[in-house]
Amino acid sequence: MNSEPADQIRLLDLQDLDTKLSQLAHKRENLPEHAEIDALEADLTQLRDLLVAAQTEEGDTAREQSKAEKDVDQVRQRSVRDQQRLDSGAVTSPKDLESLQREIASLAKRQQDLEDVVLEIMERNEAATARVSELQDRVASVRTKADDASARRTSATGELDAETTRVTKEREVVAGSVPDDLLKLYDKLRAQQGGVGAAKLFQRRCEGCRLELNITELNEIRAAARDEVLRCENCRRILVRTSDSGL
């Protein structure tokens, strides 16, 4: 293939722009905010699960406490009624009096036991409530951090997208000035060679594979016509000659 030296040199400009676009895409994909947000979202998921469990325990203990308090109230009311019967003098039979006194004593013991249960449940409910409050604060804190990271990511991606748009337009202009057959070869090689389709011959070294050319290769390049499109014998990329090639 033959192409004017100026067209070949424009390939280096095109390669610089394509390299820049690849770097921008890589930077966008690997913004530190991506990993930061993923970690924070994972923390949020875990904290929310813990919060749901704590809220469930809080609700369960609240209902358990309410039932236990009703049980205490029922025993207390029964005890009050029995005491009133005892104090009224309506019960005169010694046997009935003894039975009533035993029941009052039994109810007092039952009430004490139930009140102990209520206290134990209250302690568990208070602990669950405190846990809910703590987890709500932690969720809010992590959510704030995640929102901040999201805002930073949006800002960073916006800047990168704007730069990508600018470079893409510049690439279109440069690509439009390169002959179609040369551009087609460049794009094909760039796809095959990890994003680099053309490289400068600098100080007798291919800037694509970073290998120095041997004397035979250099002599062949020296003998080639100025408009001949050369390829590196090592990496097969388009090898562009410049004033810095050291020929």
Short structural description:
The chain is mainly α and 247 residues long. Helix content is 76%, strand content 5%.
Structure, explained:
With 247 residues, this protein is mainly alpha-helical. It has 2 domains: 5-25 and 179-241, no CATH class; 31-176, Helix Hairpins. The chain has helices at 5-29, 32-88, 94-176, 180-192, 215-223; strands at residues 198-202, 205-206, 230-231, 238-241. It has a 4-stranded mixed beta sheet with strand order 2-1-4-3. A hairpin with a 6-residue loop joins strand 3 and strand 4 (238-241). Helix 1 packs antiparallel against helix 3 and helix 2 runs antiparallel to helix 3. The model has no long low-confidence stretch (mean pLDDT 94). It comes from Streptomyces tardus. Residues 205-239 form the C4-type zinc ribbon domain. InterPro entries: CT398_CC_hairpin (IPR056003), Oxidative_Scav/Glycosyltrans (IPR052376), Zf-RING_7 (IPR003743). Residues 57-94 are annotated as: Disordered. Residues 97-152 form a coiled coil.
